[in-house]
Design goal:
Strand order of the largest sheet: 14-15-16-17-18-19-20-21
Helix content: 25-40%
CATH topology of the largest domain: Beta-lactamase
Mean pLDDT: 94
Distance between the termini: 79 Å
Structural class: alpha+beta
Largest sheet: 8 strands, antiparallel, barrel
Number of domains: 2
Oligomer: single chain
Strand content: 15-25%
CATH class of the largest domain: Alpha Beta
CATH superfamily of the largest domain: DD-peptidase/beta-lactamase superfamily
Shape: globular
CATH architecture of the largest domain: 3-Layer(aba) Sandwich
Low-confidence stretches: 5-16
Number of strands: 21
Radius of gyration: 23 Å
Length: 445
Amino acid sequence: MKYLITLIIALYCFDVQGQDISNQIDDYAKSYNRTGDFSGCIQISKKGLTIYENCFGNANYSFNIPNQPETKFKIGSISKQLTAAAILILEQDGKINTTDTLSKFYPWSKKTKNITIEHLLTHTSGVTDIFNIPNFFTLSSQKKSISDLSKMILDIDLEFEPGTQYQYSNGGYALLAQLIEKLSGVSYQEFLNTHIFKPLNMTATGHGKGNEVIFNLAIGYDPSGYKGLKITDYVDPELLKGSGSIFSTVGDMQIWINSLKNKTLLNIESYEKLLNNYGHNYGYGISLYKSFDQSVFGHDGRINGFIADYLHYKETDLSIIILGNIQTGVSDFFRRDIAAITLNKDYKSRAKSILPANQNTIEKEKIIGTYSFGPNFNVYIENIEGKIQARANEGGYSELVLLKDGRFFSRTLYSYIEFKTDDKGAISKMVWTNNDGNSFDGLKK
């Protein structure tokens, strides 16, 4: 009887603790949902059991269709580890080796002589990013294939000598996707379906063609103004093959995590390659580092209209998955804060609280210009259709919204921006403050 009472008390305390964690996560996620900055699903599993699952916002705001656990989201750069797994499967089949140089497959390009498959997988190849291709966002209307994209990538000079630096490159993973098709004789999506998704029973995961109807796929949104939304611009999934074209659900992402921790899909040698830290806290398409004094693996993803993130804490066997369909900067800190709640650590919501000012009072001509944050890194401030937009180098635009305290706010990056004047009242620099509190100065050219 004494044992039974003790057991009942223990189960009651566990249930109360679980409810408290759920309430904290709900409150945290709702603080960003209220400001229009998060819409999506969160799932947390521990030791094989789902301890939290909830969804917020809508999969389709035009028809008020709510997000649900079955909702599919584009997972952006989490796709890279699936591409890496596909390459390792080809290696297991004797069709490729991670030590092979690209010259074996692209003999027409002189740039490929010293680039290995492993360089591509670990972002140490020097291959340019796809977003550095001139007029990249116009390619979707031109029906370009992954082969066309690969040639464009290799036509651009290398950023550095292969193996000498680390620089994140979606271009390297586009080349890997093209190699998967070339060596397997089937499409990228068919190869992943046959060799990864079907064996793992990931029935809600795949790569969709541009005109394909995908049941339960959320609409992707970008921020507009202080709290509004707009349907994101279209980017052909063909151009994102290898680097960010996959869609999935929170449930299927947990299946993928389980396959990594239990090593159930690839052979041991392949997992040793995939999960090895080659420097810069990176393996083959996967991040590996320490968080709250625990070893973790995972990745984040951002693609037009979507955010995605997951982390698996090895020592506590804890998985945190976040998938969303509004592309804002909340993804930069969501995973850490939700882990903190689950692990009983300090956290806080960074949801914006300062109200917007009258946007018509912005002195646009004074702040428009180019701001230098260091060698080869510029931020361009432009007036596009009456809205102030910021763009770093060749990246996408982020709208800046004037707040009542005089600062500007970027929902896309979840950062605060101030413009400083010199003694003559002219704008002389921009101060960019990230959501982690770190500030950077950019001098106006």
